[in-house]
């Protein structure tokens, strides 16, 4: 029987930025409905937030443990199908493990966990249960990055040689964590964010994009991390040299003190015959550059794009699709895959195109490797997963 998937949410209550984004993304394609939530660790806020979202009183929970336990005891045609975890990093692992142990699939905001050891434990639990776990590496949802990935995979540019990925922001150029900014406060707190600041928050996005689009894996890196703002406890800027498993090299730049920048993500990948150039500020455009002929301009929604870009596009060319739609593509593909499995069908390769536990573990390994490299006197640090 086909129906909407029932989603529970942990975190994401009133004044929480990313929770609202997750809900919008989950709702865009009409495949998911929010049926329950433990939306805040504060009891009053949890209840008010649930009422804001028109949840039934008996499906508004004041702790994730209470929600997972009680939902698991409901009839199969009532209880949630999966849980979306949108809390700060230090609150990812325990609810994810508990959800999996009670038979619930999981969507979790990146990075996957507080540390690498937790990530490995989650990976083992996913393998043990056979359940789905998606990680919201949002930017891989853009249709033109999927077009780039497909062209590279099909060998359009020959062997890949060079990858440049940059993600500059400027919002942490001042000591805003002391001025009441909740987003800044937890992201710069080692007790809640983990061992990395900028590199954990946006560097993991950059590393994932470099690997996702190129189809390659980072094998070694050489990192330089800085903390420019006085009083801050974690890195707010970094530069990383990369080596990939086919011999390609790369450069990753991530900064949250690039004053004046917003979310200026740009990816360039070059092979023997040409390459691709994409930036989020014009996310519906992919520049395809050739060694021996003029640059081509690919556009989202056009009839000439490949199956992966087409599958993740909702409107005709000329109608911009952006961040929310890219985010929604992760939920859409996760949902289509889950529904296919529930109905005894085989998901298509396009449905299966979303970040999973494997990418989440590599993200945590990236954080560990970058921090270790920044502290080391050796030129290169091996990337170990």
UniProtKB/TrEMBL annotation:
SUPFAM superfamilies: Glyceraldehyde-3-phosphate dehydrogenase-like, C-terminal domain, NAD(P)-binding Rossmann-fold domains. Residues 146-276 form the GFO/IDH/MocA-like oxidoreductase domain. It comes from Parasediminibacterium paludis. This is Gfo/Idh/MocA family protein. Residues 6-137 form the Gfo/Idh/MocA-like oxidoreductase N-terminal domain. It holds the Pfam family GFO_IDH_MocA_C3. InterPro entries: Gfo/Idh/MocA-like_OxRdtase_N, Gfo/Idh/MocA_oxidoreduct, GFO_IDH_MocA-like_dom, NAD(P)-bd_dom_sf. It comes from the Bacteria.
